[in-house]
Amino acid sequence: MHDAIVHPSGARMRWVELPGADPARVYVHGLGATSAPYYAGVATHPLLPRRRSLLIDLLGFGISDRPRDFTYTLEAHADALAEALRKAGVEGTAVIAHSMGGSVATVLAARHGELVSNLILVDANLDPYPPAPVQPGGSGIASYTEESFVSHGWKDVRDRVGPNWWSTMRLADLRGLHRTAVSLAEGTTPPMRDLLAALPIPRAYLYPEGAAPAGADGLRAAGVQVLGIPESGHNIMLDNPEAFARTLTTLLP
């Protein structure tokens, strides 16, 4: 396990690192997830040439610290991730990021462009959404106030998301989980799609085949490769790791 201090409180981000040649690859998890369980299979897949790979957990999630005075916005997550990558000696990296992590990775590439040379979004959140009781990706977390979520709302979410997602969501700091979900629901300024369109690097958006993302034509017009992965749902890397790895071989150096 590796770590780096990324916050004035002394809070550390931690990651599992797989040895290999540079340039490195960085894998970023989604909301309520953790990177190693989601990515270990594809990061070591025989179809992919071996590279140094960081399976990193954002603050508040998985094996990383949970500072109370961290805002847990998408921008704050991106800046903390940038600090971790700099301290790990990583620059010009390919970032593979799932769901909410794709939003963080897009902000990372926009704010810290020297760190990211290639961005691969995996069924990522590109648009804000109103905090209705149940929302794709957030499962209604943002519909609660922070205090009501911490006191009882998490139990409702636990029952909705099921045992697989909850197995990693239960590792998250409840306040951090809620603040991240709220920021995800609110989106970014400029909007996430504008940030993605303006990036001067290779970009790809992977989605479950048959469920193309909203605005797919606009993404393509901005130079983003939009690629469907067969026999998969939202967790593409778990549902069809071979097709996911095969697709990565066409996108990664």
Q: Provide the gyration radius in Å.
A: 17 Å
Percentage of residues in helical conformation: 25-40%
Number of domains: 1
User: Strand-and-helix sequence, N→C?
Assistant: EEEHEHEHEHHHEHEHH
What's the level 1 CATH class? Answer: Alpha Beta
- Strand share of the residues? 15-25%
N-C termini distance? 25 Å
Extract low-pLDDT stretches.
none
- CATH fold node name: Rossmann fold
Features:
253 residues; alpha/beta; Rossmann fold; eight-stranded mixed sheet; 9 helices; 20% strand; globular; hydrolase activity; AB_hydrolase_fold; Alpha/beta fold hydrolase
Give a brief outline of the structure.
With 253 residues, this protein is α/β, with parallel strands linked by helices.
Topology:
Layout lengths: L1 E4 L6 E7 L2 E8 L6 H9 L7 E7 L16 H14 L5 E6 L1 H12 L4 E7 L23 H24 L4 H13 L5 H7 L4 E6 L7 H6 L3 E5 L6 H4 L1 H11 L2
Parallel strand pairs: 3-4, 3-5, 5-6, 6-7, 7-8
Antiparallel strand pairs: 1-2, 2-4
Write a structural description:
By secondary structure, this protein is of the alpha/beta class. The chain has one domain (2-251): Rossmann fold. 40% of the residues lie in helices and 20% in strands. The chain is built from nine helices and eight strands. Strands 1-2-4-3-5-6-7-8 form an eight-stranded mixed beta sheet, sandwiched between helices. α3 (100-111) crosses α6. The model has no long low-confidence stretch (mean pLDDT 94). This is Alpha/beta fold hydrolase. Residues 26-130 form the AB hydrolase-1 domain. Keywords: Hydrolase. One of its GO terms (cellular component) is membrane. GO terms for molecular function: hydrolase activity.
